[in-house]
From TrEMBL:
Protein's name according to its UniProt entry: Manganese/zinc/iron transport system permease protein
Family as reported in the entry's similarity comment: Belongs to the ABC-3 integral membrane protein family.
UniProt keyword terms in alphabetical order: Cell membrane, Membrane, Transmembrane, Transmembrane helix, Transport
Domain of life of the organism encoding this protein: Bacteria
Family matches, as InterPro entries: ABC_BtuC-like, ABC_TroCD
Species for this entry: Sutcliffiella tianshenii
Bilayer-crossing regions: 6-27, 32-51, 57-75, 87-108, 142-161, 173-197, 203-222, 229-249, 255-273
Classification via Pfam families: ABC-3
Length: 294
């Protein structure tokens, strides 16, 4: 595959993986928790490096998963103790992220992991960091990592689809019929954690938030069915990656930033032009209703 193809494939995998995971966050009104976990997993990656002295994918996954779950646990603990949810997210997010930054500065300054690398990423370098097996180059490591996470997330969604759906739309009913709501909550947080860390080398922690929220939010405005919403979020994620790459190519700007910007542009277009919930369609409907009344 060409250099351009690998970049577009990597961005598309980020869009699909983040998009389908973000749908459940939006339905459960937990979008800002995605922002929190996307930053606090820096602490997990640094902790994994300090323990293992390695930045291999498995150690990053474990570290990110542990800290992601801890973030969700601390937020839930503070919220259940009477602290407002947004305040709980703010306290946990800033504290754990700041601790990660301090550990990077103190103990990880001599490796390629730094705050800018973790937050911004650089997708242009992805095709050069390849996975080698038996002397053969099998493509970028980021593609393999994102592909693995995508398979894991899809498998979990398919296997727990009914439970995740009921928990997203009616948590009280889920409790009443015996669904383990807290297990589903932490399962979703685990999916979010590994999705975030898998995207570090491509779009970075800050920009992955756009892919986690914008495609799902756009799909939410286009359909009332969860299954269709998941498919649409994946399609919008891919479209954001493709359009973002060519925008960056034409104007010689950041590829990751362009992909995130295009996700926002597609959301704005959906916000105005959605057939059912769009501002323009609502205005047309009100205008026609006024004419009929007159």
């Amino acid at each position: 595959m060409s250099y351009e193809g690998w970049i577009i494939l990597t961005g598309s995998l980020v869009g699909i993986t983040s998009g389908i995971t973000g749908c459940f966050l939006i339905l459960r009104k937990m979008a800002m928790l995605a922002d929190a976990i996307s930053h606090t997993v820096l602490l997990g990656i640094v902790g994994a490096y300090l323990v293992s002295s390695s930045l291999e994918g498995i150690y990053m996954f474990v570290g990110a998963l542990v800290v992601g779950l801890l973030t969700a646990f601390f937020v839930q603990l503070l919220h259940s103790s009477g602290v407002q949810s947004d305040a709980a997210i703010g306290v946990v997010f800033t504290s754990l992220f700041a601790l990660g930054v301090i550990l990077v500065s103190m103990y990880a300054g001599k490796i390629h992991l730094d705050v800018d690398h973790a937050l911004m990423g650089e997708i242009a370098f992805v095709p050069w960091d390849t996975f080698v097996f038996a002397g053969m180059e099998l493509g970028p490591k980021a593609v393999w990592m994102l592909g693995t996470v995508l398979i894991i997330n899809i498998a979990l969604i398919v296997f727990f689809y009914k439970e995740l759906k009921i928990c997203a739309f009616d948590p009280e009913m889920a409790v009443a019929i015996g669904i383990p709501v807290m297990f589903m909550h932490y399962l979703l947080m685990g999916m979010l954690s590994i999705t975030t860390v898998a995207s570090f080398d491509s779009v970075g922690a800050i920009l992955v938030v756009a892919m986690l929220i914008a495609p799902g939010a756009s799909a939410y405005l286009l359909t009332d069915r969860l299954s269709v919403m998941l498919v649409l979020s994946a399609v919008i994620g891919v479209a954001s990656a493709v359009l973002g790459y060519y925008f960056a190519y034409l104007y010689n700007v950041s590829i990751s930033g362009s992909m995130a910007m295009m996700a926002g542009v597609l959301f704005v277009l959906t916000f105005f032009l959605s057939p059912k919930h769009g501002i323009v369609m609502k205005w047309i409907f009100r205008k026609s209703l006024t004419k009929r009344s007159a």
